[in-house]
Amino acid sequence: MLIGEYQHNIDPKGRVIVPSKFREDLGERFYVTKGLDGCLFVLSPTEWDKLQEKIMAMPISKARSLQRFFFSGAAEMEPDKQGRILLPQHLREYAGLTKDVAFIGASRRAELWDAARWREFNSGLTEEAIAEAMDELEL
């Protein structure tokens, strides 16, 4: 399970260190693609395959937008010896990644956020909204 929050920087070449704890869970190779709310999703091969299978099982009328969104800009990653990955320019632009980033664990995937956008997203969460969501879980 991918949990926790880690702050890192992107270097001028577009490389970022993937937290070692995440590398353990993601494996030697993993996938980065556009995510929701302006972040990037980071998926292990197993989770990538599940996403692909679920989308491909949908009728094309519903699947084509998801196929285009998730697969067109996806990149397979293999960290270097320092644990860094080179993020393609189009993914950095999509997520607004320039310097300070936050890697967060989101259970079966990691997410990569611009640090300021992550703080802004969190500032919009209220205890009331969380409590309502927890009601759905019957907690």
Automatic annotation (TrEMBL):
A GO cellular component entry from the record: cytoplasm
Signal peptide extent: none
The entry's keywords: Cytoplasm, DNA-binding, Repeat, Transcription, Transcription regulation
Domain (SpoVT-AbrB): residue spans on this chain: 5-47, 74-117
Keyword Cytoplasm: yes
One BP annotation, GO: negative regulation of DNA-templated transcription initiation
Entry's localization field: Cytoplasm, Nucleoid
UniProt superkingdom: Bacteria
GO molecular function: DNA-binding transcription factor activity; transcription cis-regulatory region binding
InterPro entries, sorted: MraZ, MraZ_C, MraZ_dom, MraZ_N, MraZ_sf, SpoVT-AbrB_dom, SpoVT-AbrB_sf
Subunit structure: Forms oligomers.
Family from the record: Belongs to the MraZ family.
NCBIfam families: division/cell wall cluster transcriptional repressor MraZ
Name assigned to this protein: Transcriptional regulator MraZ
Gene name per UniProt: mraZ
